[in-house]
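Exam revision sheet. Question 4 asks you to relate a sequence to its structure. Input first:
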Amino acid sequence: MLDSSLSGNKVIDFFFDIDGTILPFGKTAPESAVNAIRSLRKAGNRAFLATGRSPVEVNPDVYAIGFDGGVFSAGAEVIADGKTIFRKVMTDEEKDMVLSYCSKKGFRVLVQTEKGTYLSASTLEFWTEKMRRYAGAEVVLSSLILTDELPPDAEAIKLLYVTDDYPIELIRKELGSSFSVVENTVGLPSNMMGEIVMSGITKATGIDRVLEYFGDSISSSAAFGDGANDIEMVEHAALGVAMGNASPSLKAVADWIAPAVDEDGLCAGIEYVMKSLG
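Answer key, C-alpha cells:
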C-alpha cells in the first residue's frame, strides 16, 4: 500500500507501460501495484496508461485498476477524460507500403486497428510458439481478429511483425524515414519481432498531448517502463523510472531503477516519485 503521508499539493501525472511494468508477462498485476495506482489517484494525482497496445487490446482487468486516460498504440491514439483527443492512422499508401514490404520479406504480421488486431490463424500459432519458447509466457491481447485477408477499409495504426531471424537495423534501413521500427517489448529477441509505427509518433509525443489537455507542465510528469519503446517517454518525463526487469538500454536513460515488476517494483517506484516530485 502506498504511504498516504506522501500525498502533497502538487498534481503529478503518472504514465505507465503495461507489459513488464504494471504486470508481468502473461500474468495479472500484483496487488501492490493495483493499490499503489489507486492510492495515488485518491491523493489527487492522475494515472495514465502509456502502451503499445491499442485501446481495444487492453484487457478489462487492467482498465479496472482505474486510470484517467492513456497513450495508446505507442502514441498514435491518446485518450483523456474518456475522450479521444488525438488519433493518427496510416495513409493507404503507407499501409500498402509496409504490408508489401513485410510480405516480400516473408514476415508474419499483426495489424493494429481501432476495431482490433488482425492476424491469420497461422501467424497466431507462429507467434505463440515463439513466445512460449523464448519468453516462457504468452501475451494476452483483447480483440484479436483472425483472418487471412485484411479488409481493404481497415485503418492501420501500427504493425507488428514476427519472423525467424532478420536484423532490426536492416529493416530500419530498408523502410527509410517513413516509419520508425522499435524493438518489441514482449520478450522476443529484436531479430524476431518488432513494431513498425508512423514516423514522429512516440509515447513521448502522446504524453505531451495529455499534459497539454490538462494544462500541466512536463515538470509534473513521471513515466514508468521496461522496454525499448519506453525510452523516449522515460527520457522525456521529469522523472523516468525503469523497472528492475527493464532492458539495459532503458535502464541507461532512466533517472531511477525500481525493483522488478514481480517484486513490488511499481509500488516502490510510485513512492519514489511521490517523494521526489510531490
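Marking note for examiners. The two ends are 17 Å apart (CA to CA).
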